Amino acid sequence: MDASKQFCPNETCSARGQIGVGNIRIHSYHPQRYRCCTCKKTFSARRGTMMEGLRTSMELVVTVVILLSYGCPAVANAVYEAEQRILGLGNL
Fold first, then answer.
1. Which among 61, 23, 73, 59 is positioned nearest to 43, based on CA atoms?
2. Rounded distance between C-alpha atoms, residue 81 and residue 88, angstroms
3. What is the C-alpha to C-alpha distance for residues 92 and 90, in angstroms, rounded to an integer?
4. How far apart are CA 28 and CA 69, in angstroms?
5. What pLDDT, in 10s, does the model give residues 63-86?
6. 12, 47, 68, 83: which sits with the fewest CB atoms below 10 Å from its CB?
7. Whole-angstrom distance, CA of residue 83 vs CA of residue 90
8. Is 59 exposed, middle or buried, given 0-12, 13-18 or 19+ CB atoms closer than 10 A?
């Protein structure tokens, strides 16, 4: 995690969009969260990415995307469903 490459996504923050000015600190490593020293708000490292809001591990998503890119939709679906059963998540 590199806080110097992040910016505050809070629309009301005066430091919003400023990268590398030292206003962002690491709030926690697991789950990965940052904290803006200006507005005191925390935000996820996944904020603004396709992974935002997912409860599924990034490793599983990457595996499924790779399988889909190789033209294996049935295998990708089976891997995803097996992982969900193992974790006991069911249908999210």
1. 23
2. 10
3. 6
4. 33
5. 888 888 877 777 777 877 777 776
6. 12
7. 10
8. exposed
Q: pTM value? A: 0.58
pLDDT digits (tens, 9 = 90+) for 2-11: 777 788 888 8
Q: 87: which 2 tokens? A: 């974790």
- What residue type is assigned to position 6 of the chain? Q
CB–CB of 45/33 below 8 Å?
yes
Cα angle 73-76-81, degrees, rounded to a multiple of 5: 125
Could you tell me the CA-to-CA distances from 46 to 18, 26, 29, 51, 75 in Å, in that order? 18, 13, 12, 6, 27
Structure tokens at 11: 């629309």
For 21, the token pair is 């000015």
**Six-digit token pair at 53?**
């809001």
